[in-house]
Amino acid sequence: MPKQKMGEDLEDLVSKAVRPDQRLKAEDLVASELATAILSEPLSKIRHTCEALMLLDESERKSANITEEEVKESEKIYTLTATLRNAFIDKFTDSYGNVIERSATIPWPFERKEVEEWLDWSNYPIWKIYVESGREKERVLKKARELHDEGKPLESLYHVAEYRVTIDTLNRLKVQFVNYAMPRTAKLLKKIISLVSSSSFQEALKRLKGGSYGSQRQG
Q1: 43/124 same-domain check
Q2: What is the mean pLDDT of residues 138-166?
């Protein structure tokens, strides 16, 4: 056999041997994201489901009947999830050593003029500002009230949250967001999990639970 032909056959054999492993590793990654999502609190559940979707290529998304509209909305949901999870929390320690969360600043990833597109899920945009400096507080409040009086409550919320709002305000936003995002995320999770074998998913759960899942299932 010519040396060139032998080399081509060897490359073809190696290629065929490697590809199944690559697919298996990709499936394991998706399974791991889904298993983590199922075991997580709401915001993390949303995050990991969106990350599982990011791991799929176009053909896999089509196979799971995931539309382009769902992909686009998932990108928005993921960005907002990261924003709310990474809000800056101002803390202080009291005389007893307790760490107290005092206020929150939200790093919006969009401009104020885009709030209607990004915060359309906040159907009750109320807020409470937290600013210690009297002059700064009055300046922020004045602008926020102007926006509210102009019929722009979402822009008013955007404005104050860029500075400092109470922890209750942040938590209220998180609840509103979860109420919007969770049904959509659950629908995606159900579609994505159809692409993962039960064995891969069970192994992912087993790894996350330190091996206890597999032993419980066998028992």
Answers
A1: no
A2: 87
Q: Do 79 and 109 have their domain in common?
A: no
Q: What is the pLDDT of residues 91-132, one digit of tens each?
A: 878 778 888 888 899 999 999 999 999 999 997 777 887 766
Q: 213 vs 206, which has greater pLDDT?
A: 206
- Cβ neighbours of residue 199 under 8 Å, at least 6 residues apart? none
* Number of compact structural domains in the chain: 2
Domain containing 194: what range? 3-83+185-218
pLDDT for res 164: 87
| pLDDT of residue 32 exceeding 60 | yes
Shared domain for 179 and 191, answered yes or no, is: no
CB 108 within 8 A of CB 117: no
Q: Choose the weakest-confidence range: 7-11, 45-49, 177-181, 212-216.
A: 212-216
Residues 175, 146 share a domain: yes
Do 134 and 172 have their domain in common?
A: yes
* Cα–Cα distance for residue pair 164/195, rounded to 1 Å: 43
